[in-house]
Amino acid sequence: MHLSIICMVVAALIEIKRLKTAKEYGLVDMLDVTIPMSVWWLLPQYVLSGIADVFTMVGLQEFFYDQVPIELRSVGLALYLSIFGVGNFLSSFLISFIEEATGGDGKDSWFADNLNRAHLDYFYWLLAGLSAVAFAAYLYFAKSYIYNNRKSTI
User: What sections of the protein cross the membrane (predicted)?
Assistant: First the structure.
């Protein structure tokens, strides 16, 4: 989970760099012009995001396979898959809420059509904060969880 925090911090810093570059070159209101930054600036955040996803998926799958009784493994698999659906729903809700909350009174929202006037960096900082809170909750529950010690049947 700590990788998702690092990923969002990196994404926020790269977005700040992109906005600064747009202002330096006077491209803020030129929607059809490409900002002179290499696409390779996106590589670190996507690599971190991919690694974090791999660890999350494998960890969740192992947890549900190992800690759920054999009779309930299909329920465990259903819960495992449901987590991703709930996560997508919450993500959509968060984006809709932020769009509504930040776009009122004639202001550009964090997700404005003109990305040079938007504030995706604020959104990335928010996601980093939410990931930090989730990581703290994970540490609490992981420390207090009593694991089932089952021997392998292989």
Answer: 77-98, 122-141
